[in-house]
């Protein structure tokens, strides 16, 4: 039988058998521990990616396969659009265009924005 170390498993607390530098009682505990660490470390990234995917979906939905469309800013906000999450900004023809992947938007006035698909649109 392998010697028991005086250290408990970093995941479950059971005694660890084997090498003196071993930290986990088995592979399942090792995997579980690292999955928990990864899950908490990546929560911010997951939340940002979810917001970006939602924004892209809402812009695409409003365009309905057209190159450009005009939309109420409030309508997008009510659908769950977050103007804080973008993937890029470009200046074109003295306009600042905010992008969420290939879909962009810029204000026409305080309540209305123009949505464009960069691959199809003429600004």
Key attributes of the depicted protein:
alpha+beta; single chain; 7 strands; five-stranded antiparallel β-sheet
Provide a compact summary of the structure.
The chain is α+β, with helices and mostly antiparallel strands and 123 residues long. It has helices spanning 27-41, 43-63, 73-79; strands at residues 4-8, 15-17, 68-72, 88-92, 95-100, 103-107, 112-117.
Describe this structure in words.
With 123 residues, this protein is an alpha+beta fold. Helices cover 35% and strands 28% of the residues. The chain is built from 3 helices and 7 strands, in the order E-E-H-H-E-H-E-E-E-E. It has helices at residues 27-41, 43-63, 73-79; strands at residues 4-8, 15-17, 68-72, 88-92, 95-100, 103-107, 112-117. The strands form 2 sheets. It has a 5-stranded antiparallel sheet. The protein has a two-stranded antiparallel ribbon with strand order 1-2. It is rod-shaped and about 70 Å long. The mean pLDDT is 89.
What layout of secondary structure does this protein have?
Blueprint: E1 4-8, E2 15-17, H1 27-41, H2 43-63, E3 68-72, H3 73-79, E4 88-92, E5 95-100, E6 103-107, E7 112-117
Antiparallel strand pairs: 1-2, 3-7, 4-5, 5-6, 6-7
Shape: rod-shaped
Tally of individual helices: 3
Helical content (DSSP H or I, runs of 4+): 25-40%
How many beta-strand elements?
7
Largest sheet: 5 strands, antiparallel
- Ends apart, CA distance between termini: 75 Å
Structural class by sheet pairing and helices:
alpha+beta
pLDDT averaged over residues: 89
Low-confidence stretches: none
Order of helices and strands: EEHHEHEEEE
Order of strands, widest sheet: 3-7-6-5-4
CA-atom Rg in angstroms = 25 Å
Strand content: 25-35%
